[in-house]
Write a structure and sequence with these properties.
The structure is a single chain. Helix 1 links the parallel strand 1 and strand 2. Helix 1 packs across helix 8, helix 3 packs parallel to helix 4 and helix 4 packs parallel to helix 5. A seven-stranded parallel β-sheet has the order 3-2-1-4-5-6-7, with helices on both faces. The protein is an alpha/beta fold. The chain starts with 7 loop residues before the first strand and ends in a 9-residue tail after the last strand. It is built from eight helices and seven strands, in the order βαβαβαβαβαβαααβ. Bound molecules: nicotinamide-adenine-dinucleotide (NAD) and ligand 0WE. The site of ligand 0WE has 16 residues, from helix 6.
């Protein structure tokens, strides 16, 4: 019997086998969970379908989180096939590349709205569509980053989006506690993924994190996957509204 045996849930945010969402999926699968996946578009579909199949998943659905109809269709289909579900993983973020490069004060209204819509509002709409099929005891986890609470060079509008995301975690947790639904965030240290590969000077950030972290190492998709597994499982039945750092202790040191 695994920690997640008999539990079912959906994972948003797998792009390829380097994705944090994929690290989470592997841990959930090993623990006995049954998984559904969503993908952004056709180019992602080609990568996500074989990954999903490798874990025995048969429910793989399109979902651009900016599109309410697609989001509604995902949870309608899950309701049809499974009735109710036990967990949701939100591992989705996007900002215009120039907004992660230009001075922060140059952020356009459109760029701000795009980053906040995809990276923060989507947790609210995802939760809203999930609620009708979430079991009591269900758990929602989203992925965040230290740039929400510190001015990390170049993270810019994504930092504002992550601050909104973390605040949304607290408001959703406060609202859904009476339904015995938990909502938490995992704040991961820097990891080389597709989303990170577009960032200038990311290598230097990795080196800095490795040198300064209390554990003197980077964190992996597996490190994040295991902590997320805990938050999604009944081991964390008393934990909600939290931002749980999985950064090797980078954020707790100074000097
Ligand atoms: P990734 O590129 O593998 O995943 C990002 C995902 O977001 C992709 O699957 C992409 O398809 C999806 N996405 C973007 N726009 C979307 C939209 N409109 N609709 C649906 N999906 C959309 O990169 P990752 O690093 O695994 O990122 C996953 C999460 O982890 C993000 O929230 C990111 O902010 C967070 N995070 C990443 C790091 C890091 O260093 N890599 C650190 C902390 C937190
Ligand atoms: O959340 C993220 C990255 C999110 C992201 C990445 C991209 C690159 C490609 C959002 N939008 C885009 N848009 C693109 O066009 N991380 C936590 C990883 C990350 O990004 C940084 C970091 C870290 C860490 C950017 C600057 C500084 C540090």
């Amino acid at each position: 019997m695994g920690l997640m045996t008999g539990k079912r849930g959906v994972i948003f945010g797998v792009a390829n086998d380097k994705s944090i969402a994929w690290g989470i999926a592997q841990q959930l699968h090993e623990a006995g969970a049954e998984l559904a996946f969503t993908y952004l578009n056709e180019s992602m579909e080609r990568r996500v379908k074989p990954l999903a199949e490798s874990l025995g998943s048969t429910i793989v659905l399109p979902c651009d989180v900016q599109n309410d109809d697609e989001m509604a269709a995902v949870f309608a289909e899950l309701g049809k096939q499974w009735g109710e579900i036990d967990f949701v993983v939100h591992a989705v973020a996007f900002a215009n590349r120039e907004d992660l490069k230009n001075p922060f004060s140059q952020t356009s209204r459109e760029g701000f709205q795009l980053a906040l819509d995809i990276s923060a509002y989507s947790l609210i709409s995802m939760t809203r569509y999930a609620i009708p099929i979430l079991k009591p005891g269900a758990s929602i986890v989203t992925m965040t980053y230290l740039g929400s609470v510190r001015a990390v060079p170049a993270y810019n509008v994504m930092g504002v989006a992550k601050a909104a995301l973390e605040s949304s975690v607290r408001y959703l947790a406060a609202e859904l506690g009476e339904k015995e639904i938990r909502v938490n965030a995992v704040s991961a240290g820097p990891i080389k993924t597709l989303a990170a590969s577009g960032i200038g000077g990311f290598k230097d950030k990795l080196k800095f994190a490795e040198e300064r972290a209390a554990l003197r190492r980077l964190v992996s998709q597996d490190d994040v996957g295991r902590a997320t597994l805990y938050l999604l499982s009944d081991l964390a039945s008393g934990v909600t509204g939290e931002v749980h750092y999985v950064d090797g202790g980078f954020s707790i040191v100074a000097g």
